[in-house]
Predict the 3D structure of the following.
Amino acid sequence: MDVVGVSWVWAPAAVLLLMGVAAAGAAFSGALSAGATGQRPVAGLLAPAYEAARLMRQRRRVLLGADRPLWRGGGGTLLVAAVLMVGVVPLGNWTLADLGVGVVWVNAVDVLVWAAAWLLGWGANSAHALVGAHRYLAQALSYELPLMFALVAPAVAAGSLRVGDIVAAQSQLWFVVWMPASFALFCACVLAFSLWGPFSTGSGPDLAGGVLAELSGVDRLLVLAGRWALLAAGSAVAVALFLGGGAGPLLPAWAWSLLKTLLVMAALVVLARRLPLLRPDRLAEVGWLVGLPVALAQLLVVSLVVLGRS
Amino acid sequence: MGLTRARGLKAWLKGTALKRPHYLVVAEPGRDVTRFALERVAAERGWVMAHSPAEADALITCGPLSGELAAAAEVVWQQLPGPRARVDVDSPMGVESALGHVLERLSDDDFQRRDATNRPQEQPTDSGHADMDMSDHGDMDHGGMDHGDMDMSDHGDMDMSDHGDMDHGGMDMSDHGDMDMSDHGDMDMSDHGDMDMSDHGDMDMSDHGDMDMSDHGDMDMSDHGDMDHDGMDMSDHGDMDHGGMDMSDHGGMDMSGPGGIALASGGEDRDGLEMDVLHVQLGPVLGLWPSGLVVTVTLQGDVVVDAHAHHLDEAAAPERVDARVAACERAARILALAGSRYAAAAVRLRDALQMGTEVGSADTGRQIDLDGELAGLLARVQRSRTLRWSLRGLGDLKDDQIEKAGLPAGDQGDVHDRLIASLRLAADPVAAAPTSYGHRHRAVEALPSLLIGRELAEVRLTVASLDLESRGVFPEPEHGPDAGGADAAGGAVAAEAVA
Amino acid sequence: MSDLITGLVFWVLGVLAVVSGALVFRFDSMARATYALAVSFIAVGAALLLLQLDYVGLVTVLMMVMEMAVMAIYMIMFMGMNPALMPMSMVHSRRTALGISAGVFLVLAAGIVTVPWPQRRAAPAADLTASLGETIMGSKMLVMMGISPVLFATVVAAVVLAAPRTRYDRFGDDLRSAPSDPHHGGVGR
């Protein structure tokens, strides 16, 4: 079963599906939060919908001295990045852009998030938001190299940068089995480029919301939705690169892709809730002295296996 | 038909939007019991505490605010994007009706429309720099101008249309934009002619006098327009000492950029990489922050290079908070700032403890359960390796620092140590002695020395881990740090409150 | 039809690249100038995608956005002032710069027009990325692999030399002891 590119006519459907998965993740997280504070989980399940309605009703703010194009541009970029990212991820056997260098595409899009996060903090012209922007950038410097090498491992194993080829190469054995470290690092980095959970110090409570501090109304909604969409898109990438894409018994391939994406996202949400905020000053050493060597060691193992097979 | 549907959709949107309002609390120091009750009831209803004014739908004030706090609340109120509602709660009894009032206000479309149109186009001097004639700047005390209640963001809510009204003409920025920076020598002074020099005349030149002119190199060159270019030797620019500049001077100086916002500038940094120097006021309106505490910090990037702390006046009749509740609140704050999943449990147990003290010891069965739960939380927090990894070594206070600040001996060590100590105190039923008063006055005085050189995250955690609440603070600690004597005084105040 | 669309997209990207590139010098704020440059590079990267040089195009976007994100911070630090609020010119030595850039443009444009470009003789390779890699690296792989560690060592050495605090500042005479840093890192040192 080969992954084939489908017409761009399907792009809106892909966007809707992405937003659906993102909303499901947000609802699941809301239910967990409600459970933790002793409320009915059902109320939490609807929390994202309530929040979206609230923000649609709230007015936007016009800040004095804010760099509006950069500020709003940064906020919108998150959602755009998520949409661009799922463009190369196959849903079962279909993909929108059957790009020969899909893995590099994913990486390039993740770097857009660097810029978006910083612009969001810078543009608001607020001290807390600016510190948040710097925090996100410092964090990005800590996770980017482990992320790159985690992405390289499946590409080396499949001998191709095409996401479809990587899915096909897992028909015998999912890559997660023999490159677990790359998978784990990639999942952590998905949380990181979603600017969410333990990697949300740049919008943390100690900064009065950091890059989110000055956002209201639809501007805020766009950023929050963008974060969830990035988490959903990253989960979909993890499924394609490490969990065999649409492979699975009984159900059609697209259903497996979707199901696995939802499961990865749920696992990430649960994991994120268990961890405290990973402040950049602590994360830098972990990223460079633990994450990077582990990613390189895993890549070495993968390369040796590939050499041995050929 | 279409109209009705649109109206129906709007009503539905409103109904959904009001299911989960976000609120911001401004509590008078010494109103913690009211605040706890508010937070508890709001959480039960599924309301969310906002991190910043931009996020909030409602501003809820606890107690009659006065002075600095009232001004800060006013600034915050101006920043709420709207639809917005503001209510005051003066006792735990009033919480339910206050929340009801908030919902009523938020759903009252006519009121919101009026509010939106009536919002001051001319911003109050307090928060609005926009309309100000730049010439006013010289006379204004920059420090007193609420840069701080608003940590730069205060400029926030302003309507950009004001921007147009601004006396930008007085400093035509575009001219400066075109100026060739390297060409200072041949700068065409006629450009300056376009500038309204009379504005500059109004500037407080005496500030300039205090300044070392060589410092100007660090300033944006466009500021030079304000200065006497002729008198300055431009060739010196290269040799200027950027590092030695005293940034504090800038506070007093008119360093205003467009819109009159004070400009940030650079300063010498510990790692040699120069970051913006920002003056930010932490508190009095700030989430997870001791009520009534105000710390003005000078930030370089996110490192605090200078700090000043003071307490606001507290309520005339402060509400008395039990030591265990206060300890639990402290722990909850540290946990929330650290992003720990145990924060929610700590808040819930704080409220349960508070309810327990209000009910009295009648419900002993529940009390025992509560003690067990607190012990469980303590055990889980102690076991959490990630939390220890996150907090270890932060806000490390040595014995002599503790002594100098008049803090209790138990406060030595890092934030993690104090977190465990707080939880231990909260979980210990026999330690239910009233909060020891008296030491906080000195602690707040000594606070800057404990904060300077630390990063903002560490500062927040350090402050959260110390008992700096102004509840029960007396101008002069008559009994010193001796807990027993001070308790009596605290008790007297509490009794007064009841009476 | 698809040629038309491709042509159209190319021109849009081309104009975007040039205009945002020019805006770098028109903007009066560091952040805007930096990100205008980033937009210009993204447009160039996308144009490379149109030429089916997927890898080169994406790497251009990846590296340049990353670089601009970091560069914005350095611009702010090294300018030693806050250009966020205060408009400032992005142009230095305007006349010289204009002269040089006009000259360079003319030389390059003349090159484009006058160089006898070779005609395509065969069909493009199936995998352009692989064949590009072969062409650039193929016969020189050993050299490249030798250079990599040298380059990396140079980077590390430069950072070590540039750091204001040496290991003796951090550890004292006994280099095995715990370092005295203003901040503890995350791996328990």
About this structure: The beta strands of chain A are 4-5, 94-95. Chain A touches chain B through 59 residues (CB under 8 Å). DSSP finds twelve helices and two strands in chain A.
